[in-house]
Each structure stands twice: as structure tokens, then as C-alpha cells.
């Protein structure tokens, strides 16, 4: 008689995967978490240090960078990207990431591949201080084919109600700090893959550079917040680059003026622009171009913020300032 396994779903493989990933999740556990991996749902208390806590949520994927991981077999860091795309969004409003959940879907479960990816998800959680509290592994033959997989991430954080950073305090004369990216991060890979497809040969070093995971900025930014230094706004530089992400956190009649030569452009972006024959404006609105996170801070506290960020491993550049503008003026000016 036909079985579930005959239909393409291997429950034994799923059980093996759960056993493999439990040690990874254990590395990420916070004291607020109740229960263990494998239950029907997950429980987490709000830390008792918060007086008026607001829960903050974020969900994202890794885009078609995942397809490049599948094509190259370089799965071992893609989970860091998944976590980063969620927790970097949480920290933008000042939130501390509490926990993370993943969704892993495939046509036929390869336990080794899945375990490698989930181990890297756990590493991303360790870097951000979030507990890997649960997730879902779905084996769906007929919907996914061959080595196809899909990933999604979900994270919840917490912030004091009176400490939410929403950009309303940004004023003319503030300093714009740029935190260096680790590379392309996890955006623009539809264009990256199109460029790769047109090359007769691509070096292993270039592929490795493209697969460097998205930098997680949580620990360094939380250090600034814990030092009680004011941050007026933050922007996670994802798809759309600085041109489209910074305006999301600016009040009316304020623009950001950025000096393009204020930081060195990583070689991987030069390679993409040259090989893809990409116009400068298109580069700016597609890729992070070397800046993965932007902080807008009062000018008289900028030096202190830079010192703390650098002490926590970040490479920080003063990339511009804010200025008053008219309603119809561009929100970001590159010079």
C-alpha cells in the first residue's frame, strides 16, 4: 500500500533534522524562553526590565541570493542573511530582538543541507541576541523541484514605548553616520545573477565575495543606545539603497546630503558596475554600495557614537549631514 514516503514526504528525515538542529537552537536560548524546540508553539516572556514594552515584528527572506546559494552549493552562511534581514529592521526603531522563527520549504528534504542552513540561522541569532525559538520545515513535492528550497524568517523584538526611534527628532545639522556593509548583503541578486549569467568565467573569489552574509548591526547599535546617546533616526540599507531607504525615516522638509567619496567603494560593487555596465544612479538605487546601515545623530554627539560603534567592531564613516529643504526637493542628495 502507498505510504506518505512514497508520495515524496519523508517524516523520518524530518525527525532526523529536528534532532540535528536542537543543539544549534540551544546556543541561542534566552532566559525568557520557555519550553524547547519541537513543540506546537513557542513561548517567550517579555524581559522584566521593560516598564512599558512595545512588541516589534519583522519578516523577510533572502531574495534570489538563495538561488545563487543553490547553484553554488554555498549554503553554510545563508541563514545569517535571513536573520540579518529581520533583526536589522527591528533595531532601526530601537528594538531589542527577542526571538526568531524560520520557515524552510523544499521538494525533497536533504537533511545535510537543511542542517547547514539552520546552523547558520542559529549563528545569526547568536550575533543578534535573539533566541531561535521555533520554525517550520515543509517538504512539498510537486511544488518545489530538484534542489529548490525557500526560506523565510520572522522575528519579534521589544522596545520601551518612550524610547521608540521614529525619525521625528531629525533636524537640520544632524550628522549622518554610515556603517560599512560586508558586501552586497541580500539585495539586488536578480541583477547580480543576470550579470553572472553573461560572464564566460567568474572567479571563485568573486562568488565568495557575493556570498558574504549580511552584516548584523544589532550589538553595536544597542551599545550606543545603552550608553544613552541620542539616535534621531536609523535606516537599514536594503533594496533601493540609500536613495530609497533613508527617506523612510525623515520628517517633512528635511533632506540628507551625502558625499559619495566619504567611504571607499568595495571592489565587488566596482566589479558589478563594470561587468553589468550599470549606470551610477542605478547602482545607488539597487545596492548598498558599501553602507549597510545609516544612523542620524546630533552633531555634538557624533564622535561619541562613532567611538562606541568602532569599539564594537563596526567601521564607521561620516557620510553627510541633514539640511532643511522645500517640500518638493529630493530627500537624498548625492554629491
Please write out the topology.
Elements: H1 11-26, E1 33-34, E2 43-44, E3 53-60, H2 65-72, H3 78-92, E4 96-106, H4 111-128, E5 131-139, E6 149-160, E7 175-180, H5 189-197, H6 204-211, H7 218-226, E8 233-236, H8 241-245, E9 254-258, H9 267-276, H10 280-286, E10 291-297, H11 302-311, E11 316-324, E12 332-334
Parallel strand pairs: 4-5, 9-12
Antiparallel strand pairs: 1-2, 3-6, 4-6, 7-10, 7-11, 8-10, 9-11
Secondary-structure element string: HEEEHHEHEEEHHHEHEHHEHEE
> Can you tell me the CATH architecture of the largest domain?
Alpha-Beta Complex
CATH fold description of the largest domain: Phosphoribosyl-aminoimidazole Synthetase, Chain A, domain 2
Distance between the termini: 71 Å
Overall SS class: alpha+beta
Give the neighbour order of strands across the main sheet: 8-10-7-11-9-12
* Structure annotation, total helices: 11
Helix content: 25-40%
Structural domain count = 2
Principal-axes geometry comes out as globular
Beta percentage is 15-25%
CATH class of the largest domain: Alpha Beta
Q: Please give the largest β-sheet.
A: 6 strands, mixed
Could you describe the 3D structure shown?
There is one protein chain. This protein is 34% helix and 23% strand. The chain has eleven helices and twelve strands. The chain has helices at 11-26, 65-72, 78-92, 111-128, 189-197, 204-211, 218-226, 241-245, 267-276, 280-286, 302-311; strands at 33-34, 43-44, 53-60, 96-106, 131-139, 149-160, 175-180, 233-236, 254-258, 291-297, 316-324, 332-334. A six-stranded mixed β-sheet has the order 8-10-7-11-9-12. A four-stranded mixed β-sheet has the order 3-6-4-5. A two-stranded antiparallel ribbon has the order 1-2. It is globular.
